[in-house]
Amino acid sequence: MVDDAPRRTVLIKLDVSSDREADLHHTKNQFLDCANQTSEWAWRYDDYCITSKNKAENALYNDLKEEHDLTANLVQKGIRRAIEAVDSGVDKLKKGEKTSQPVFESWSVVYDKRSATFNADHATLSTINGRVKTDYVLPPENEREDTPFGRYYENDEWDASHATLQYDEHSEEFYLHVTVKQPRGDNEERQEATSHGEGTENGVVLGVDLNVTGAFAVTSTGKFVGSADYLTHKRNEFEKRRGRLQQTGTRSAHLTIQRIGSKFSDWSLDWLHNCVNELLEEAERVGADSIIFENLKHIRENIANGSKFQQWAYAKFVELAEYKVEDRDLFVDFVSPAYTSQRCSCCGFTHEDNRDDKAFVCQQCGYEANADYNAAKNVAVRYCGYIHRGQKSRGGWAACQSALKSGTLNVNGDFNASA
Ligand SMILES: [Zn+2]
After folding, report:
1. Nearest-5° angle of CA 286, CA 330, CA 413?
2. Which residues of the chain carry a pLDDT beneath 50?
3. pLDDT digit string (tens) for 346-397?
4. If you measure from the C-alpha of residue 409 to the centroid of ligand 1, how many angstroms do you get, rounded to a whole number?
5. Which of 10, 85, 207, 359 has CB atoms 3.0–4.6 Å from 379's, for a disulfide?
6. Which domain holds residue 99?
């Protein structure tokens, strides 16, 4: 989609509390490092540079994410910033102008609505150390009307879409350069609404339950993604082989351990990528606006008996999902996990006897289902409950529906099979 919506930039001075300034500086350093590493990778020779953002992200994202404390979004923004610069460098070369590999030195970090909130009198910015709240330093209210802040930022017809954080070394002040846009056309309006929240009446959520046995992930629409048993089996095979080699103890055995170790971690990452893709396909198929997981702390507790490897796999799966939705009209959010496996998604009756391993039978209404599918529906229903009680969703919806098998369940629990 070509984005030709009218846009303006509004410069806002920030009041950053002194104990958080270092967090912003470190965030900038890491952000620029991601951009510089990307530039280094993409700028091969003057006649051969990589200008595909997808290629760059596939090649670099995992390592950069591992090496830095930045959120997935900021790592991705760093990669994109560099690729855009490489791309315009290549354009210059094509025109016969002189240029060289882009180097990022000036103080700036790129934020969008996933890594920042733009509020009436303050912003929150994602950093290497959680979010930082920064108040705006604004002109007096009676003079504001004639400033860009009054004309655009405070004007409902304009919508803050992204910003660049900058720092002025001389005055030692932080500034936010906020880009505001005027939504144009239905599609764009809808997209803006989805990411910002105003105007979207009704969001559709896809609930997901993650497991150590049976299917790796089960959705509230009854889609079973990947086999946790298969993943465990592959891991056990690898462990056994490593054990045998360790007993051998020779140098060549040691080298083989390293080789099969890195092969196995490549394989499992690839496997997780494919699972996330399947999940995203399902989300798209049912028209979901968001994917909801139980919060990670619970996933860790739930699989406390599972191995470190399983814990890693679940955390990675969720991280990849968060990362991959950034390109789409979708977001990832979390619910508190209490009793999702014991609660009946049909009548709400919660009892430990309802569940026996993979079989769920409600002791009150008799509803029978795969236990993980029932849990995934509870995840979706619970998220709708949050919205129903007035908690703001990341999509800012007024209401919300769970995506269920061949239909939707609205906040009142009415099932609509035709939806
Ligand atoms: Zn029931």
Report:
1. 50
2. 1-2, 184-200, 418-419
3. 888 999 999 998 899 999 998 888 999 999 999 998 888 887 777 766 666 6
4. 15
5. 207
6. 7-196
Same domain, 219 and 267: yes
Question: How many angstroms separate the alpha carbon of residue 368 from the centre of ligand 1?
Answer: 8
Q: Last residue of a domain, which of 172, 196, 220?
A: 196
CA 76–ligand 1 middle distance (angstroms): 44
What is the distance in A from the centroid of ligand 1 to the CA of 26? 51
Q: How far apart are CA 260 and CA 239, in angstroms?
A: 10
pLDDT at 305: 58
Ligand 1 centre distance from Cα of residue 315 (Å)? 31
Q: How far is the CA of 338 from the centre of ligand 1 (A)?
A: 17
* Rg from Cα positions in the chain: 24
Q: Which of 196, 218, 235 is the last residue of a domain?
A: 196
Predicted confidence at residue 418, as pLDDT, reads 42
d(CA 360, CA 352): 10
How far does the centroid of ligand 1 lie from the alpha carbon of residue 415, in Å? 15
Q: What is the mean pLDDT of the chain?
A: 84
Residues with CB under 5 A from ligand 1 (ion): 344, 346-347, 349, 362, 364-365, 367
Phi, psi for 269 (deg, rounded to 5) = -60, -45
Residues in CB range of 333: below 8 A, 6 or more apart: 290, 291, 292, 293, 383, 393, 394
166 and 218 in a single domain? The answer is: no
The neighbouring-strand residues paired with 123 are 118, 134
Q: Is residue 405 included in any domain, yes or no?
A: yes
The CA 8 to ligand 1 mean position distance, Å, reads: 54
Domain match, 210 and 170 both: no
* Amino acid 1: pLDDT: 39
Query: Are 142 and 258 in the same domain?
Result: no
CA of 302 to the centre of ligand 1 (A): 23
CA of 351 relative to ligand 1 center, distance in Å: 10
